[in-house]
Amino acid sequence: MENDAGSAFELGTDGPKVIVVGVDGSESSWRAAAYAAGLARRQRSLLAMVYVQPMVMASSAGLGVPMAEATSKVAEEIVAQVREAVERMGEAASLRWEFHTFAGDPFTGLAKAADDLRADAVVVGASEQAGHRIIGSLAVRLVKAARWPVTVVP
């Protein structure tokens, strides 16, 4: 069977080169990160951890600066926890990873990261919010975008 010119299929590549995982400090995002790290290590892929900082509205009664500082603090804490986990894994793990932050809503931030990094896969934790059953979760929105394989970790 011949490969048509418009196909994104690449001959001679095995497995994903870049795996993007969304992290926000929640338990489900840490489970997703652990799963994605295992995949990245076994596949010798780059693990791109992405934290999407919520947009801060300047008109929120003067809460803009404290909120921005809080989300930056969360990003710093996530990076510190990731570094600790990678150090615990030791040299044998040989995990290549990067940490990225984007401002905005989680879907837009993860989609931008996955597109910019040419991700072969996206991993997210299952939503822990009941309202997502009605309006749709981040995972459902990523799957509907149909641009990358998406794995949802419970």
TrEMBL record:
CDD domains: USP-like. This is Universal stress protein. Belongs to the universal stress protein A family. Pfam families: Usp. Residues 17-154 form the UspA domain. Signal peptide: none annotated.
